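Weekly modeling sync, notes
Attendees: AB, CL, MP (scribe)

Item 1: holo prediction request
CL wants a bound-state model with RFL before deciding which constructs to order. AB pointed out that an apo prediction alone won't tell us much about the pocket. Agreed to run with the ligand included and paste results into these notes for async review.

Input as submitted:
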Amino acid sequence: MTESQYARSDQDSADVVILGAGPAGLVLGNLLLRNGIDCVVLERAGRDHVQNRARAGFLAAHTVRILERNGLDGGLRRRGREHGVCEFRTESGRFRLDYRLLGRGEPHTVYPQHELVADLLAQFVDAGGRIRFGTEAVAVTGADGPAPTVTVREGDGRPGRWRARYVAACDGRHGAGRRSLPPGAVHRHHRDHGVSWLGLLAEAPPSLDAVGYATHPRGFAGHMARSSEITRYYLQCEPGTRPEDWSEERVWDELDLRMRATEYGHLRRGGIVQRAVVDLESDVLEPLSHGSLFLVGDAAALISPSAAKGANLAVLEAEILARALTDALAHGDPEPLASYSDRCLVHIWRAQEFSHWMIRLLHDIPESGSASLFRERLRHARIASLRTSRTQQDWFAENYVGI
Ligand code: RFL
């Protein structure tokens, strides 16, 4: 690439260049804008795509408080619904935990992630925030010096370049932020849990007034309301499964079987509007920064959806980074930026630990060399302890809703 090919975008600069307009990038952008910090968001996809991508739905009380204290909670206050019960359907019967009354006594707020993203986007644009859709970050260079650069590819294929003082990579696990880390700059912890879920979004009203977790000899099945018309379901499947191999009829029959419809009632069926296979993985980088490049949200750490933590961690990290960048840029205090990684990793590892425990509660995970009946008995004991021990239930509630 010659210098002249960059001519059009040579003026493009911002104190903070944010890659990605998911929950992490948009919370960060909104908070920086409110603090008077010059920033821009570069997003590979178009606006429609970003605000219609159905993903998470369960927001922790802590996430709601962050959005509330920063004036970003308008939509979720109007349309979010409090939720506080989960129902386990197991080989030894059914039990419910009213987790609003356990642990710290906090509920979840059910609010679809794409609606939150649409709210954050509208608020950012209305407040005069700069955002470039259809602009893909290709690489971050010079992060170990004071003037990092982000090279980009515009929607029409033209190259561009943004100059920054800091770059916040909020562009997910496969984004340019992670790719641009020099070899050896960070340590990557990775764990493939050996379990896959078929994630389904159904145009069907919820069938339970609770989050449903079913353990069954044929595998796990999950039920999570998203709205009065939309429900997310999960079915454990063989790693490598192709989503198109599951017809609607097969999906509903299998869900009914694993959720024990004959004992507890049939599920309310509807069209399956989204299906994707999710491999349950953990992936944490350490540290979460390299020079002036900071990783946030899924770019920093990936967590399996078994404990519904990913979007919540993204919002928490974005708030921590917004404060630290403001301290550095507006008050000349670089110390909070230096401790950004350590502060976030404490929360990330606690969430990973809980998610790890949930995976082992809900699945029989093959491990080389150990008898499967032994593992199975341990899993049943874990479920029995959750069913009967108030101390265990308090621990579950605190970790399930908390970050
Ligand atoms: P996102 O939301 O993936 O946003 C990243 C953005 O970056 C853009 N991008 C780029 N832009 C410019 N240049 C590039 N090179 C780029 N590469 C990518 C992308 O287009 C996108 O717009 O990351 P962020 O902001 O870190 O947020 C993370 C959350 O989205 C994620 O952790 C959650 O969705 C995880 N998750 C859940 N989390 C919860 O807290 N509660 C839940 O109930 C919950 N349910 C889920 C989930 C994830 C799921 N999937 C996707 C596995 C359910 C499912 C099915």
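Recorded for review: DSSP finds 13 helices and 19 strands in the chain.
Action items: CL to compare against the apo run; MP to circulate these notes.
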